[in-house]
Write a structure and sequence with these properties.
The protein has 2 helices and 19 strands. It has helices at residues 125-128, 154-163; strands at 2-5, 15-19, 24-30, 34-41, 64-68, 77-83, 98-104, 114-115, 121-123, 131-132, 137-138, 164-168, 181-183, 186-193, 213-220, 245-247, 258-260, 269-273, 276-282.
Length: 294
Amino acid sequence: QEGIRDLDSSLVGSEMCIRDRLNAGQSLALSDRITGGVIADLQLENETDVETAANNRRLYYAPDVAIVQEDDTTAPILTISIGSGYRAHPLNDTVNDKFFVLKYDDVISAPADELDNGGNVIADGYERVKIHVGDLLDVTSLNFAADPPPTLDTADAEALYSQGWYIDLTDDGEKALSESVTVDGQVVFTTYTPPADDADTGDDQECSGNQGSGKTYVVSVIDGAPVANLDGIGSASELELSDRVFNLKVSGIPPRPKVIFPDIDGVSGKIIVGRELLPVNIANAPEITYWVQD
């Protein structure tokens, strides 16, 4: 699956981000001819890492591609958000699944090749920007909404702001089984956790009527920080890590989040998952978009 963007108003796709089912993200530049390469391996920690049952992550859904800007003093960047999960076997609890947000400075064009002083190509542009899991900052236990926020060393700060971040899906068997949505500086995604085996009764996942549970995460696309008091505990001005998650009432595998803008004066945008409304307001209202057709 893929996401196509027209970045130069030419009415022709400029770049396409796709994913393969196992672990790699690819980016293709769409010009007179298609060029491209692998830009991420979200299975291995680094080039020398080896595949195991725990890191055998699968990407079943299209990447969520957005252009975001942290503030007025920084240049726009490209974010590619995607979660891993074994859709063909949703009860699997062996894989350590994660949700990733990758960051790229190459917003308008394909990544430039790395050149030596003589102008010779040292590394292909796509190979130059290729990301492994170990290049990203693990923000699972970091709360950048805290006061004061966590202090990062130089390497971690470089990883967060130049490469991206990830959150471990820490419940037993928790996995992402739908596309995410990026809106108003927030990335919204759902996860599914299968029912646990009941050692006391002998019931197992296959025979139990328990369909498992779903969650919705709403976090900052910049650093994974909580953005609203989703758990309803404590104060909206002092957000905790638990505020990243809204526990869905409907059991089973949750659908993709949707953003709606009611045609009612004074009512902001809302996020819904299935029939459930999240306690989050979207301030970035849509604007009228025009297009031409020959």
